Amino acid sequence: MSTQTLNSIASKELYLEYDWYKNTFPPAVQQSSDEFFQPGFKFVMIGISKNINALMDKDSYFVTKIRIDKQYDMFFRSSENAVSLILDRVLGKPNRSFNFNRMTDLEAKIITAFNDYMFNITSKFLSPPPATELRRTNFDVIHLTFIIKDIDDAKFGKFIVSLPAALLNPDTITSKGDKFDNTSFKTSTLDVNIKIGSTKFSMYDLKNLDTEDIVIFDNSNTKKMTLIIGDYEKEIKLNPNLGLITPTDENNGGNNMGANNLWDSIEVEMTAEFDAVKITLGDLKNIEDGMVVDLTSIYDNKVTLKVEDKIIARGELVIVNDRYGVKINEVTAQQKDGAIAGDIASDEITAGQPAQTDDTAEPPVSEAEQQDEEFDYSDFELDDEDI
Prior knowledge:
The strands form 2 sheets. Strands 6, 7, 8, 9, 10, 11, 12, 13 and 14 form a 9-stranded antiparallel sheet that branches. A 5-stranded antiparallel sheet has the order 1-4-5-3-2. Helix content is 22%, strand content 28%.
């Protein structure tokens, strides 16, 4: 495990020790408040961390440092809101809003005295400092973050107690073995995505994609697909469903015939994947390199075609020679009732078409032009290397 992981807020050891911290310090902090101010404030611990930077946020803090010995200190940090609500209850609400820059000596002494009192109670849970001198690091301190709230008011603030880790001896939750039998979950299912393949597709062919068209995916193989769970991807082998074989001439639309300008000839990557497929945890656990996976049921699922994570069309899987293809049943990007979000004016994407400056009725559009404009392909941003 890397140093960065060990020093993160999500450190594993803190998860195992959390119960001890929660049962030890919050009662002591609450006791300190009740005895010093009398009941009126409620302290709730909301987190444990080794990294103070993530806790400080952009707030300002009143900090009290109390020396334990020449090596170790405790710190008590009160946010501006926390100091304000404490002083409001102790001294009464002032006519002006509280600000650290205008904090009086009396106000500072009240907060410091409270922190000293809390130190006397919470330090009882620290071990005696070791005789040997230890090398200090940035992450040898445990920070306990509390929310302090006035029980009679909606105001609240943040309060952080920083403890030297070397003087703590927290109880750790230890595993007593597996809580569940591995077989308990083997029939449980989860949704996974299965990527069929990808291919390069010209903007011209993308614009003219229509139902009954068949798109062949050059980067596909009938004997394997890619299983995707979140950020995890694994190539799986499977026996192709020979019933999907379609006798047809290969034509993946990538020949750019009919393209009449540079924009039309630009190629983008189109991917095909099944709609979410359910697989049991037992089957998922048994997937190994070289193993053939039985995913017969996926062949009945609809296939989604995407360009830059935008859904372009849906269809059904076919096999052409040794590659997968998709027979288009629906072109979802064609929206006759409105343009795709983020569309730009058609005069900016249609070569040779003049800009429309008159707000009155638009001139008639031929049937061929209307078909071209039904699919607005300007929604896809292209990198320079695609041109």
